[in-house]
């Protein structure tokens, strides 16, 4: 890798963004859910198991970012050079996945935190909350699927 070309730099930016954006979003999301759970445990210690599941759900966006990063890393290792189009594609996919992962995990945690608060108030909302928490997740899955399709069909 002696020659740092613009396409290679774009690939590195895209891969770094797909990993960091989704992982930062997951870290924020899990923290928000865990903070709500800690507050909720003061009212109702029996919610820990279900609350922990709800608090952990935003972590999946980080997993999507890592999985995409790993798949792209395997592909990049076997390529000797990149065209400008490949560099732009990987950069665009990385920005899209990182941004979607960041935003969906952050907003997913709001549903998670509200659900945990209501469980601490004695409401039986776990099952319904699981359904609602999946909605933001679908967009992270779409972003990951798009990244995978670009990897398979365009690189």
Q: In angstroms, what separates the terminal alpha carbons?
A: 19 Å
What's the total count of β strands? 0
Radius of gyration: 18 Å
Characterize the quaternary organization of these chains. Answer: single chain
Overall pLDDT confidence: 95
Q: What does the largest sheet look like?
A: none
CATH class: Mainly Alpha
In percent, how helical is the residue content? over 70%
Here the CATH topology equals: Four Helix Bundle (Hemerythrin (Met), subunit A)
Residues in β-strands, percent: under 5%
Domain module count? 1
Which second-level CATH architecture applies?
Up-down Bundle
How are helices and strands ordered from N to C?
A: HHHHH
CATH superfamily: lithium bound rotor ring of v- atpase
Q: Helix count?
A: 5
- The helix-and-strand class reads mainly alpha
- Tell me, briefly, the overall form: elongated
């Amino acid at each position: 890798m002696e020659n740092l070309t613009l396409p290679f730099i774009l690939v590195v930016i895209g891969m770094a963004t797909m990993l960091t954006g989704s992982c930062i979003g997951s870290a924020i999301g899990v923290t928000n859910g865990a903070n709500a759970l800690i507050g909720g445990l003061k009212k109702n210690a029996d919610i820990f198991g279900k609350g922990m599941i709800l608090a952990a759900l935003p972590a999946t966006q980080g997993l999507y970012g890592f999985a995409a990063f790993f798949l792209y890393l395997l592909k990049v290792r076997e390529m000797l050079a990149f065209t400008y189009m490949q560099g732009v594609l990987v950069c665009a996919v990385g920005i899209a996945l990182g941004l979607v992962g960041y935003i969906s995990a952050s907003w997913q945690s709001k549903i998670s935190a509200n659900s945990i608060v209501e469980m601490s108030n004695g409401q039986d909302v776990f099952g319904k909350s699981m359904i609602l928490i999946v909605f933001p997740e679908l967009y992270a899955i779409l972003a990951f699927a798009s990244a995978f399709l670009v990897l398979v069909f365009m690189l």
